[in-house]
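Justification of computing resources. Each target in the renewal requires a structure prediction run like the one illustrated here; the chain below, 119 residues long, is used simply to show the kind of job we budget for.
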Amino acid sequence: MPLIISGSQVEPITRAALGAIDVDGGSTPQQRALLGALVEHLWKRPDLDLDTLDPLSPSLAAAAITEPEQRRRFLWMVAALELCRRPISPAQIDRINEYAVAFETEDVTLEIARTWLNE
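Resulting structure tokens:
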């Protein structure tokens, strides 16, 4: 599945991703590098500065990202960001699970993404 994010959703998804990787004292350089590459090169939004954007909590992210397909793509993306944290921490997994719960994800999207990315 291509990682296509609607133009109007790039900023809230970026802010939500910043919230999702803000655990254990903050994001890792690898997580920020991957997110920065997505924002600048894939989504063509070099104007979004990861250092100045306010992260979105799970509840605020759920209010801002309402389309099921955009939510699913967000969860796939943060599963990849999760893998950039080594070692993977329980806090990181729990934090991303909070976003899945806030998005009322009843399918196995996050589990499938984690399995697929780990293989």
